[in-house]
Amino acid sequence: MSPAARRAPARGKRAFAATWWGQAWVRALEDSTLDAGRLSRGRTYARKGMVGDVIVAPGQVKAPVQGSRPRPYRSAVHLPVLTDRQWDTLLDAIAARAGHVAALLDGEMPEDLVEDAGTADVPLLPRPTELDPECSCPDWGHPCKHAAALCYAIAARIDDDPFLLFALRGRTREQIFTALRARRTAASPTPVQPSAGVPATAAYARWIEEQPPLPSRPLPTGPRAPVLPVAPPLTSGLDLEELQRQVADTATRAQQLLHGDPTSLTLTQRQDAIRLAASHGSPEWFHRLQQGTGLRPRELARLTRAWRHGGPMGVTVAEQPTPAAPAVLAAARTALSAALTDMTEQAVPLKAWRGRLTLGDTGIQLRHGPDNRWYPYTREDGEWWPCAPADTDPVAALTTAWEQRTRRSGEKPRMAGKAHTGV
After folding, report:
1. What pLDDT does residue 9 have?
2. 3-state secondary structure (DSSP) of residue 17
3. Count of helix runs (H) and strand runs (E) in the chain
4. Buried (b) or exposed (e) across 76-113, using 16+ Cβ within 10 A?
5. Per-residue pLDDT tens over the stretch 261-294
């Protein structure tokens, strides 16, 4: 049985992949067909371990899949490889930021790398129209249940090793790093003898003397609706009210920059769309932003809530697991176990995965962020949704999530009888 088959979950179609890039692979499969019945059979085959040894090669993944007959069927899924021009564009995007290389080596797929590549018409993640299934079975489905099982089974391997996506597109890990080393060598500048310079304190004092003070103006406390002298051009797709909102939003961001908050300068196009969805409650705006980002409505709604509770960092935590230091994770588990025993009057098992602590069957999960805070989540309709602002104390985050869950369900809360201790 293949590693992918061993990793196949016991239930839930969304459980085949845990990472956002693995889930993108599964979505591409499910969006490529309307035949829910064959997809359901494919999930069943994958869970039962009927997918044999998987072979990944440029442009295809293939494996024997056991069906109703004694001899397994030969199943494969084909994916177009990238052209040399597209590879040059992708490698330039990876080499442009050292963080991309570090993330890939750590087994993570940087989302902004995929977005930048997609903007340049370099599809690293599969599009629904690109997956081309093939099978030796007599089923005419596209895909048949055997090819669907292969796609579900490979999702877990893509979770663990995002370089499989590169291999499917035509180049191995070794080829990629060889090309990146060549780019780094070519881009290395000739060493320049540094000048003596001036003491930092003197330079800073001179800068302070030369810069006039900024006017002291308070940040706006609510949305503004300036009256514009002219209507927006017909070709812009905006009406007057929408343009006024854009102008007010731009003015607010300019004020934030003047007061030393550069957050808006570092947002990706996707993050800025999520910010706008969180800032403006208009259904029309939400629909347009959802279409522009390509996100599903529930996914955009979940990320919008993450922004409202935690800003850009909240969105990062919602999309990418952040491992916690072993000592931090151990301390959090100890404190949470004690608090949960007080709340429920019984021991509650804690499951840890990449800095995420799922608290038994309470419907609560805490996620560790790059800012060393714990972000509370509650389970809603089978999915994890952010429910409150983060806290450096995991027990405080648990208490907030517990209150949110209790308020939503209408249950009578059972809270700890002792004050919690920060960790």
Report:
1. 44
2. coil
3. 16, 9
4. bbebbebeeebbebbbebbbeeeebbebbeeebbbbbb
5. 676 677 787 888 888 888 776 677 677 777 777 8
Sign of CA dihedral 335, 341, 346, 348: negative
Q: What is the mean pLDDT of residues 202-219?
A: 58
| Rg of the chain on CA atoms, in Å | 26
Is the per-residue pLDDT at 233 higher than 90? no
In one letter, which amino acid is 281?
Answer: G
Query: How high is the pLDDT of residue 215?
Result: 60
Q: Are 306 and 383 in contact (CB under 8 A)?
A: no
Return the pLDDT at 202.
Answer: 60
62 three-class SS: strand
User: What distance in Å separates the CA atoms of residue 99 and residue 170, rounded to the nearest whole number?
Assistant: 23
Unique residue bearing structure tokens 């993330």: 103
Phi and psi (nearest 5°) for 262?
-90, 15
Tokens of 365: 């999960």
Q: What is the pLDDT of residue 417?
A: 37
pLDDT band at 400 (very low <50, low <70, confident <90, very high): very high
Which strands sit side by side in the sheet containing 374-380, from one edge to the other?
A: 350-353, 356-359, 364-368, 374-380, 383-386
Q: Which residues contact residue 96 at a Cβ distance below 8 angstroms, ignoring those fewer than 6 apart?
A: none
Phi-psi region at 227: left, alpha or beta (left = phi > 0; alpha = psi -120 to 50): beta
> Using H for helix, E for strand and C for coil, what is the string for 346-396?
CCCCEEEECCEEEECCCCEEEEECCCCCEEEEEEECCEEEECCCCECCHHH
Where are the chain's structural domains? Answer: 3-185, 238-320, 326-409
Cα torsion 380, 383, 386, 391 to 10°: value is 100
Query: What average pLDDT is seen over the chain?
Result: 79
C-alpha–C-alpha distance, residues 46 and 26, integer Å: 13
Tell me the C-alpha distance between 217 and 251, whole Å: 13
Residue 206 to residue 209: CA distance in whole angstroms = 5
75-107 pLDDT tens trace: 999 999 999 998 998 888 888 877 787 888 777
Name 334's Cβ contacts closer than 8 Å, sequence gap at least 6.
423
Closest among 106, 125, 130 to 114, alpha carbons compared: 125
Rounded CA-CA distance 30/24 in Å is: 10
HSE toward the beta carbon, residue 16, CA cutoff 13 A: 31
